[in-house]
Amino acid sequence: MEFVKEFATFLHQKGIIKFGDFTLASGKHSSYYVDLRLVPSYPIEFRKMVKYLENQIVEDIGLDNFDSIVSVPTGGLVIASALAIETVKPLIYVRSKPKDYGTSKSVEGKIHNNMKVVMIDDVATTGGSVVNAVKDLKEVNISVKDAYVIVNRMEGAADALLGLGVKMHSILNILQITETLFEQNLIDENVLEKVKKQINK
Question: One biological-process term from Gene Ontology (predicted)?
């Protein structure tokens, strides 16, 4: 848990997690915003995060039990690329919409029938982009049993993925982050309560 505390503190110190009033990509309002696209700007923490993710995957499912790492642009793809280099695993990715030129396919990279892949993303809210990617992969006979995210916002993604037979794992969830920050007096009780309320909605 030492990494979790250290990483949560780092996210707060560098303004990667902000508290206030935000509108998300989905149009929903949120009492906080997590922008993990900033993490690669801090190479030491970025590498620690990728190593921690790699260790989790090794512990949970082992590196020999899947063929490739898959992700969705853009946030998750940077993390997945670094992970692919660390684990020496092939990388594929799923476009949010097929390109309208060239081969016009949605899944990019070397694929074959009955492949087993592990999905990587940065932040999970309702799981929309990952759910769509899993469906696209199923259409080309690629099976996903596990998805890993860095931060789980605890707003339905795990259930949405479970409905497709995918187990979601996360390095941190928003409750762990806010409770860690509260314990260190970095945020007040009011902020913590707002986050809890949002999760329970």
Answer: 'de novo' UMP biosynthetic process
Q: Is 124 annotated as a binding residue?
A: yes
C-alpha angle 55/192/25, rounded to 5°?
A: 70
In this predicted structure, the answer to whether residue 87 has a pLDDT above a threshold of 60 is yes
Predicted pLDDT of residue 100: 63
Lowest-confidence region among 23-27, 112-116, 172-176: 23-27
121 labelled ligand-binding? yes
Query: CB count, 10 Å around CB of 38?
Result: 14
Q: Which residues contact 82 (CB under 8 A, 6 or more apart)?
A: 40, 46, 47, 50
Q: Could you identify the residue written with the tokens 């780092």?
A: 10
> What CATH topology corresponds to 2-200?
Rossmann fold (3.40.50)
* DSSP code per residue over 86-126: HHT--EEEE-SS--SSTT--SEES---TTEEEEEEEEEESS
- The residue ranges of every structural domain in the chain are 2-200
Tally of CA atoms within 13 A in the half-sphere of 24 that contains its CB: 17
* Whole-number pLDDT of residue 93: 94
Task: Give residue 138's identity as a one-letter amino acid code.
Answer: K
Say what the pLDDT of residue 98 is. Answer: 66
Instruction: Establish whether 60 is an annotated binding residue.
Output: no
Residue 129 annotated as lining a ligand binding site: yes
Is 123 annotated as a binding-site member?
Answer: yes
pLDDT greater than 70 at residue 141: yes
Do the annotations mark residue 51 as ligand-binding? Answer: no
